[in-house]
Inverse folding.
């Protein structure tokens, strides 16, 4: 079926989208670890590339919704060809916007980009009524909610972390006592998230009991044992940082894995839709995706990391000096927890937005020494224009495709 | 994604520490010049005094750069105005050292008693101590921020500030003693003015150091 020119064309576009996802997002997962000097940019690219691919190929959803999260009503599209052109338009719209955003160094949500692309062609084809506006309202809410919740949570975590570890009379002793606790807690979240996001489990309780709690206990015991045997007995703050440095590599690695498992759907969802139509001649809301398409998505992301992510992470590693390991850990831990709680409550939340919020939260807790307010403003603006811009580009392309081929 | 480099501005503390390092170097070089002056080795002294001037220039350049980068678009754990005020005071320490060097350069021969020379040397040593303590204080301020404003670290910072104030007190005492010596020892008008001006600029070093310490105290108050 790959001989079908539309399928072939869509696969190329899906690859481009995957590349853009890798380029824009992958640096997110590793940036705190690189910025805090836990790993070199080269190592980061290697780890992120391998884990993103692993996440996408082995843990990517093999059944994917063609219309992302029911944002438009597929029953209003009668002509399967519309779905083909629409998918292409949505992919192109999202990819072009992602490339623009990446060029300007703005961390935008890839999910929101593809939502924008889908909404764009949907409205052009069937009018505003095709859009599930209550779903859209939830997406818009996430722009506001994610960073605020992320900031508040990170603020509290950093305050608590500094109260227990950094600010005590004997920082070395309290670092020894409290670090296993904090790290254990982070692993409870990571374990649960692993079940929900990577293995695509449904029940939070199952994930919590089967993965979260054991991971937390194991991490607690391992860290306690290591600290008992040897603690970097230098400067108390450097000592505390050294503990969190190792942990940060793991948390960052987890973020990369989960990102691959989840966000590959943004690139291959539309590809899968076109593939299904081409092979079965009909449009289904849910389609099984051949593994090789998943592999292509993973490969695209990995290439994005290697080609664009590399340059970015190198600059990050050389320029950000003020992000220490405890602060990096706070950001990772807060973002993961907020996303977990949000998905449990059914709130739409964006990891990218939450991470940026968390950075600001740590800053406000008098942690990070200086944050650039101007850039924060630019980032927030970019979030608000993501859906409209991807939508408009997608709408124009869709219109053009319909005129030419349709 | 270059956003991370843009998002985290460079901390103002590292350049502040760098500036303080240059200030210490300036004052240390001045001490060497003073020693040579007391020995009457004018030619050697000249070299050091000129070096003081050069180092003060370096400090100035760091100051300018920092001023331009610490803009209101940054979100910082301490007030921007406090940082700029502090920088101003810290830079004044180097300025005062340069003033002394200038005085040393304008006059070749001077007839003063060993007692006066000793007092001047003592003042020089104390002013170095003050400048070094300022360097320590700003480094400790960095640790205070690093620890998330831990009480224990703030306590250590107060200790350093107290020491700076003590040094400043001591120098004030020496200053008075020198005035007595000069005015009661039948020095020529020119020599007297000369010596007293050197003393004035030397005590200025510790004065400005104290002002800088005062700013650090304000920075720590939440």
């Amino acid at each position: 079926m790959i001989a079908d020119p539309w399928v072939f064309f869509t696969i190329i576009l899906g690859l481009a989208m995957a590349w853009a996802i890798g380029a824009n997002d992958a640096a997110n997962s590793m940036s705190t670890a690189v910025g805090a000097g836990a790993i070199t940019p080269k190592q980061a690219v290697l780890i992120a590339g391998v884990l993103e691919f692993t996440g996408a190929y082995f843990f990517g959803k093999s059944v994917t919704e063609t219309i992302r999260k029911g944002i438009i009503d597929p029953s209003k599209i009668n002509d399967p060809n519309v779905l083909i052109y629409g998918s292409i338009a949505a992919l192109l719209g999202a990819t072009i916007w992602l490339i623009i955003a990446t060029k300007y160094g703005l961390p935008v949500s890839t999910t929101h980009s593809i939502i924008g692309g889908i909404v764009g062609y949907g409205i052009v084809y069937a009018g505003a009524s095709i859009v599930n506006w209550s779903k859209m309202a939830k997406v818009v809410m996430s722009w506001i909610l994610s960073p605020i919740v992320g900031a508040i949570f990170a603020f509290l975590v950093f305050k608590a972390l500094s109260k227990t570890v950094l600010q005590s009379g004997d920082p070395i002793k309290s670092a020894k006592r409290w670090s296993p606790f904090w790290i254990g807690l982070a692993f409870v979240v990571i374990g649960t998230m692993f079940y929900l996001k990577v293995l695509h489990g449904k029940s939070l309780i199952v994930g919590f009991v089967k993965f979260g709690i054991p991971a937390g206990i194991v991490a607690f015991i391992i860290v306690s044992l290591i600290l008992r045997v040897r603690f970097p007995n230098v400067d108390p703050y450097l000592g505390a940082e050294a503990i969190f440095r190792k942990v940060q590599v793991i948390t960052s690695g987890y973020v990369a894995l989960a990102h691959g498992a989840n966000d590959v759907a943004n690139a291959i969802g539309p590809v899968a839709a076109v593939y299904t139509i081409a092979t079965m001649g009909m449009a289904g809301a849910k389609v099984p995706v051949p593994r090789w398409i998943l592999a292509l998505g993973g490969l695209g992301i990995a290439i994005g990391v290697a080609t664009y992510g590399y340059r970015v992470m190198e600059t990050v590693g050389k320029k950000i000096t003020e992000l220490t390991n405890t602060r990096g850990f706070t950001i990772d831990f807060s973002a993961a927890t907020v996303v977990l709680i949000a998905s449990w409550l059914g709130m739409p939340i964006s990891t990218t937005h939450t991470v940026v919020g968390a950075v600001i939260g740590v800053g406000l807790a008098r942690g990070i020494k200086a944050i650039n307010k101007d850039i924060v403003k630019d980032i927030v603006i970019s979030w608000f224009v993501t859906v409209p811009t991807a939508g408009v580009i997608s709408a124009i392309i869709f219109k053009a495709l319909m005129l030419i081929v349709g | 994604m270059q956003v991370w480099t843009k998002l985290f501005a460079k901390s103002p503390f590292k350049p502040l520490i760098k500036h303080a390092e240059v200030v210490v170097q300036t004052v240390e070089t001045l001490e060497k010049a003073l020693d040579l002056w007391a020995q009457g080795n004018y030619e050697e002294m000249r070299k050091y005094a000129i070096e003081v001037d050069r180092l003060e220039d370096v400090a100035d350049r760091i100051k300018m750069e920092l001023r331009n980068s610490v803009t209101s678009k940054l979100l910082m754990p301490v007030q921007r105005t406090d940082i700029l005020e502090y920088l101003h005071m810290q830079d004044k320490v180097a300025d005062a050292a340069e003033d002394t060097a200038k005085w040393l350069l304008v006059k070749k021969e001077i007839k003063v008693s060993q007692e006066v020379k000793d007092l001047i040397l003592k003042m020089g040593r104390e002013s170095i101590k003050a400048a070094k303590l300022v360097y320590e204080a700003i480094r400790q301020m960095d640790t205070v921020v690093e620890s998330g404003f831990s009480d224990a670290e703030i306590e250590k910072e107060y200790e350093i500030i107290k020491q700076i104030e003590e040094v400043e007190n001591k120098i004030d005492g020496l200053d008075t003693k020198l005035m007595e010596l000069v005015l009661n020892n039948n020095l020529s008008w020119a020599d007297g003015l000369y010596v007293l001006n050197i003393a004035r600029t030397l005590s200025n070093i510790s004065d400005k150091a104290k002002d800088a310490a005062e700013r650090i105290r304000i920075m720590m108050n939440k």
In short: Chain A has a mean pLDDT of 84.
